[in-house]
Amino acid sequence: MSTVRLFFALWPAPSLAATLAAWAEQARPSCGGRVMRTETLHLTLAFLGPVDAALADELAAATPERRLAPEDMTLDRYGVFGRQRILWAGPGDTPSGLQAAHDELWQWLSGFGLAAPPQPFRPHVTLLRNIEHASPPADAPAPLAWRYDRMVLVASESQSGGSRYRIVAQSRPQGA
Hints:
Largest sheet: 4 strands, antiparallel
Strand content: 35-45%
Strand order of the largest sheet: 3-1-10-11
Distance between the termini: 36 Å
Radius of gyration: 16 Å
Structural class: alpha+beta
Helix content: 10-25%
């Protein structure tokens, strides 16, 4: 049985991804670590992990029928996941619309036999991996506005030197 490693995410526009990459470069001198590639920056809504290839195909076929209400989010802080040695950027508080999108997504996924993780949703964009210092820079750059209206289903494919992300499907904006 073959499997595909999947996750649902918000994918930033190229200009926002470039600004986030600049945040990573700004933070690197104080944290150390490896800067994530600009084209891989995203905010995970639901990490599914390895799923059966048939289920992956089913999810890819169903994703375009999903609707995501357009919302605004502000990324205004750095944070650290110490055990994972990750520096991230994210909102100071989880916006209620984003939390609702996360919860509704997992409710929908439960119909496919997938269960939400027990830990709370902590929206973030990973900027640096393998950081050397477990405290984030004191000040985040100026807040970034992120207007999102769709989510993507992404396959994560292991390669030497890291993972390659391939968008397999995307939802439609509400009303489309």
